[in-house]
Write a structure and sequence with these properties.
Blueprint: E1 2-4, H1 12-24, H2 29-42, H3 67-72, H4 77-82, H5 85-96, H6 106-114, E2 126-128, H7 131-136, E3 148-149, H8 150-164, E4 171-173
Antiparallel strand pairs: 1-4, 2-3
Helix pairs in contact: 1-2, 1-5, 2-6, 2-8, 6-8
């Protein structure tokens, strides 16, 4: 038996698709939970395909697709916002394809979304220090020292992972013997 975080908060179709995406990338069920935790964090635990970024970046959806990223994937944030959550997972899969083989940890999963060049980098790597990018992500500066490290940014997603594994949020998969 395996637990998937936030599995009780999404439709069976959504969960099945997340598991299929994970399997297709060669990810474990733990990595499927990591993806669920990232989507819970990015969507404010709503798993809404139309949720907009509160900081005004123009990002939308399950993993907060930026407008330019959406265009690179062959769509727009407006089109993404009109999709069902299950439909938008196709774009989550397409987005992760170039990073999938390098994503081993929860922090790497989140870095694939936030700052892909930090996938596989040390936890102490500084992502932001000053400027617009820092201001837009200042909520990730856990110790308020003016710098956001990979570990700090990921700690908030780790908290979502732990919350998603609690009773009422997680779902247990019964694997055949």
């Amino acid at each position: 038996m395996t637990q998937i975080c936030w599995g009780a908060k999404v439709s069976p179709e959504f969960l099945d698709k997340v598991l299929a995406i994970s399997e297709g990338f060669g990810w474990t069920t733990l990595q499927a939970s990591h993806l669920m935790a990232c989507m819970a964090f990015e969507s404010g635990e709503t798993f809404s395909p139309s949720i907009k970024n509160a900081a005004g970046s123009g990002a939308t959806g399950l993993i907060q697709f930026m407008p330019r990223t959406a265009v690179g994937l062959g769509t727009t944030v407006d089109e993404l916002a009109k999709m069902t959550a299950v439909q938008q997972l196709d774009y989550v899969q397409k987005y992760f394809r170039p990073y999938a083989a390098r994503v081993k940890t929860l922090s790497d999963m989140y870095m694939a979304i936030l700052m892909p060049k930090y996938v596989g980098k040390p936890e102490a790597s500084v992502l932001f220090s000053g400027g617009i990018a820092y201001r837009q992500n200042s909520g990730l500066d856990v110790n308020k020292d003016g710098m956001i490290t990979k570990q700090e940014a990921s700690s908030l997603v780790q908290a979502r992972f732990l919350k998603g594994m609690r009773a009422g949020n997680a779902v247990t998969l019964h694997c055949p013997a």
